[in-house]
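ESCALATION

Customer reports they have been waiting on this structure for their group meeting. Please prioritize. Original submission:
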Amino acid sequence: MLVEKNVPLQPYNTFSIVARAPTLVRVLQEADVRAVLADPTLGPAPKFVLGGGSNIVLTGDVKPVVLKVEIPGRRLVEETPKAWIVEAGAGENWHDFVGWTLEQGWPGLENMALIPGTMGAAPVQNIGAYGVELQDRFESLDAIDLETGRAFTLDAAQCGFAYRDSVFKHVADGRAPGFGLAGRALITRVRLALPKAWKPVLGYLDLERRMAETGIHKPTPRQIYDWVCEIRRAKLPDPAVIGNAGSFFKNPTVTAEQCADIIAREPRIVHYQLADGTVKLAAGWLIDACGWKGKSIGQAGVYEKQALVLVNRGGGEQGGHGSGPRGATGGEVMTLAKAIQTSVYERFGILLEPEPVVV
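Update from on-call: job pushed to the front of the queue and completed.
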């Protein structure tokens, strides 16, 4: 168990916000978690689980004991007639894992290429992009209860997956016994089932444009992977250069009637029909329509190329990780986010919900 004191957290959050952890423990194996829980000082203390730091906004120093999950490893667990079951340690980089599966000839994750973060964080957020979500490929995960030290395994149903949601984002209460593992569980390993009967998922406009541009109407998994990487790099800033946490708001879902009402006022609104009859609206379009693209509050700004992304104008490699300007504070980021929420609500009657966890 490696315990560090007074650790700068700026390198460990992609927003590149300045903060510190009085105590940080690097978790390289399951035994490290049990050692923390058995320690007379660390055991009783509140704890905060940190993965790649790509989905958090730090609003100050993190006083709980930070458990920095760095468990390595990836392997083929089992091959069934229908799927390859692959496993990764919670500390593995998600995008690197996607690339590795394709190199092995196991497709199915290509639409989720270049999503930042670690394997352990992927089920928490039920990450997804371009028509595929983690739950579509999920098999099971292993975790440790941070109260009892007990190891347990969950299948997809037990994870309670929904749009950018899971059991790991909810606190247990009397109304839903057993549902709610926020702050209680540390995920150690994740297993995915990659289908042998692979079919491309191509329903998004950006991918349809790529097919039209290239004349490739039956792309391979590798072609889809390359397209997704190109699209994301063109739209989204590199956190190493400009601090950010990717998409800051969830795309809201409305009824068909609500959507028709908005279309009557805003005919150009970007929307996607869902299988259950509801309609998903593009949060970035709503924010852009309210005039926020390129605007700032303090050092926190709205990215010029994609209004769904908030950025640290002083963060990243050029300022945040070096000795340059301090960059945005978590308070500035959240002030900007709330101003955007107010604008969108006043114009469209829709309350945008942030994706990142505010710490």
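Sent to customer with the following note: The mean pLDDT is 91.
Escalation resolved.
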